[in-house]
């Protein structure tokens, strides 16, 4: 598994750029991160419970908090902050 070496919010919080130790750098929009949040609020508690989140085109990242050595919590300006984004989940959200 690749580990992040740098995580930076760019473009006034509209984009998150993540550099991994295998040389790959991905850029994810705040909108994509918000609508694909790994939180139970978005993903549900079981198969088939995923909720479609809309209206987040202008959402921004206001804070990034480390969670141990395996994830980050992203705080968005709409108040959402319950998803824990593990390294492998962030990598899967990036381009193939």
Automatic annotation (TrEMBL):
<dbReference type="InterPro" id="IPR010376">
    <property type="entry name" value="GBBH-like_N"/>
</dbReference>
<keyword id="KW-0408">Iron</keyword>
<feature type="domain" description="Gamma-butyrobetaine hydroxylase-like N-terminal">
    <location>
        <begin position="9"/>
        <end position="91"/>
    </location>
</feature>
<protein>
    <submittedName>
        <fullName>DUF971 family protein</fullName>
    </submittedName>
</protein>
<keyword id="KW-0479">Metal-binding</keyword>
<dbReference type="Pfam" id="PF06155">
    <property type="entry name" value="GBBH-like_N"/>
</dbReference>
<dbReference type="InterPro" id="IPR038492">
    <property type="entry name" value="GBBH-like_N_sf"/>
</dbReference>
<dbReference type="GO" id="GO:0046872">
    <property type="term" value="F:metal ion binding"/>
</dbReference>
């Amino acid at each position: 598994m690749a580990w992040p070496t740098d995580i930076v919010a760019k473009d006034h919080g509209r984009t998150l750029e993540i550099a991994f130790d295998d040389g790959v750098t991905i850029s994810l929009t705040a909108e994509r991160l918000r609508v694909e949040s790994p939180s139970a609020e978005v993903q549900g508690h079981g198969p088939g419970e995923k909720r479609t989140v809309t209206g987040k085109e202008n959402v921004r990242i206001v804070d990034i908090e480390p969670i141990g050595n395996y994830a980050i919590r992203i705080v968005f300006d709409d108040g959402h902050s319950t998803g824990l984004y593990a390294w492998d989940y962030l990598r899967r959200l990036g381009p193939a």
